[in-house]
Amino acid sequence: MSFDFETPGKRFKVLVNHEEQYSLWPADLDVPGGWEETGVCASKEECDKYLEETWTDMRPKSLRLALDGEQ
């Protein structure tokens, strides 16, 4: 399945999974299993800005915890 991320005016949801990894998802589609909405629904540019500010550590949560000795 592919999505057009470049159409002007297209809106997206920012999703997050249990590993605190994020994804852009077309706003008009149902959220897939294993993902939750963050409450952000905006243009791609606005979603990208949110991700740049929020997702500062790309490592999955379980890896961060294991490396920090908090498992």
TrEMBL record:
Coiled-coil blocks: none
Lineage: Bacteria, Bacillati, Actinomycetota, Actinomycetes, Kitasatosporales
Domain MbtH-like: 3-53
Origin species: Streptomyces pseudovenezuelae
Protein name, UniProt field: MbtH family NRPS accessory protein
Pfam family, one: MbtH
Superkingdom of origin organism: Bacteria
